[in-house]
Amino acid sequence: MFGFLGDIGSAIMTPLYYAVSAVLVAWHWVFSQVPGLSSGWTWAFSIVGLTVTIRTLLIPLFVKQIKSSRNMQLLQPKIKELQKKYGHDRERLTQEQMKLWKDTGTNPFASCMPLILQMPVFFALFRTIDQAANKGGDGAKGFLSFAQAESLQNATLLGARIADTFLKSDNVETKILTMALVVVMCITQFLTQRQLMAKNMPADAMSGPYAQQQKMLLYVLPVVFAVGGVAFPLGVLIYWTTSNAWTMGQQFYVIRNNPAPGTPAFKAKQERDTKHGKTAAEDPLKEIEEEAPKPPPRQQPKNQPRSQRKKPPSTSPQGKKRPPVKRSPSDPIDPNDPKKGGNT
Fold first, then answer.
1. Which of 224, 211, 138, 131 lies closest to 182 in space, CA to CA?
2. CB 155 within 8 A of CB 39
3. Distance CA 230, CA 127 (A)
4. Per-residue pLDDT of the chain in tens (344 residues, 90 and over written 9)
5. How many whole angstroms separate alpha carbon 165 and alpha carbon 230?
6. Burial tier of 47 (Cβ tally within 10 Å: 0-12, 13-18, 19+)
7. How many Å from the N-terminal Cα to the C-terminal Cα in the chain?
8. What is the C-alpha to C-alpha distance for residues 81 and 1, in angstroms, rounded to an integer?
9. Which candidate, 73, 24, 21, places its Cα nearest to that of 46?
10. How far is residue 314's CA from residue 316's CA, in Å, rounded to a whole number?
């Protein structure tokens, strides 16, 4: 069974080895033409070039992620209405939400796609560098030649071997450089998540289970990267740190120029546009909230004095109304009996 799963994994990863190694080798050839550049810097810049290439190819997906995130913000009033209407029936609520997302072309999972698509590339690069570090030319993957794998195995950057890890190396330079990259990687991850929560999330999203989840990711992810980073080769840390820096810069640009509706960043952009004489865009989320019909206020009963309150009709001791007395014209008038027309 494990052999079968291994064959499936190999069939999936082999094309990625060729794709990653092709880009890596292409950038290595470009930087090899620069005179005076050492082998270590050549491979380091090649990994940075690989990162930039991958993130550039993911820009269309990132744009789709932004659009989906905007749609999710604008759909929040409708989703709240569905929750009030079908809160007692989870299955019906799920069906209605799926129908709403389908009708508006919104994918709630689009925000995870860039990270999910990067993970196979990350593992392919990890295996490419790891195999070259352990086996040299015999561990060449994809388009990486025997000589290039040997060069990658022995390449040094500031005295640290690119293929070494913090745990497996006794070199002081390797430990210092890998630890520095792990710290930078964790800081960029923390700042990216904090920037998103502080500037590009509406007030409603800052409370409840979703906010607690985001706060947990804010502090847990850097710890996960710190623990896992000590086992990554230096070359992989270069890739991941560069990718985090790209994400932080890309997010800063989007938050500043195309913020989500109903967020502090959107209000700040309106103020900047007004200050520079531009027409500030209206907040579509605010317009939706204003258009939503508000329930009429409940009228409280007025306090009335006891004298103005309506008295119930008189009833007999048995709880029945007393019928009026009818008098015939022929009946004699008794002056002492009010029922017979006498004085009252």
1. 224
2. yes
3. 16
4. 556 555 676 777 788 888 888 999 999 999 999 998 888 899 999 999 988 998 888 888 777 777 776 666 667 777 778 878 777 778 888 888 788 877 777 766 666 666 677 778 778 877 888 788 778 888 888 888 888 888 888 889 888 988 888 888 888 998 999 999 999 988 988 888 787 777 766 666 565 555 566 677 777 878 887 888 888 889 889 988 998 899 889 888 888 887 877 778 888 888 888 888 887 777 766 655 555 455 555 565 556 566 665 555 555 555 455 555 555 555 555 555 555 555 54
5. 7
6. buried
7. 110
8. 49
9. 24
10. 7
DSSP characters over 148-192: HHHHHHH-EETTEETT--TTT---HHHHHHHHHHHHHHHHHHHHH
Pick from 152, 162, 164: nearest CA to 32: 152
Return the structure tokens found at 56. Answer: 């550039």
DSSP three-state, residue 105: coil
Single-letter amino acid code for the residue at 72: M
**pTM higher than 0.90, yes or no?**
no
The ranges assigned to domains in the chain are: 2-261
